[in-house]
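Appendix B. Raw example, untouched.
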Amino acid sequence: MAEEKRADALFAINASDSMKPSCDKLRSSLKRFIQPFREEV
């Protein structure tokens, strides 16, 4: 049986109005960012 590897991740995001453009970009690319980690499981 292969050893199971797990990790917890916590993201702190500044969601103030001035950061809205950055938050929108983050939201649109978050799936792409997370996918490699899901493939490792």
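End of appendix B.
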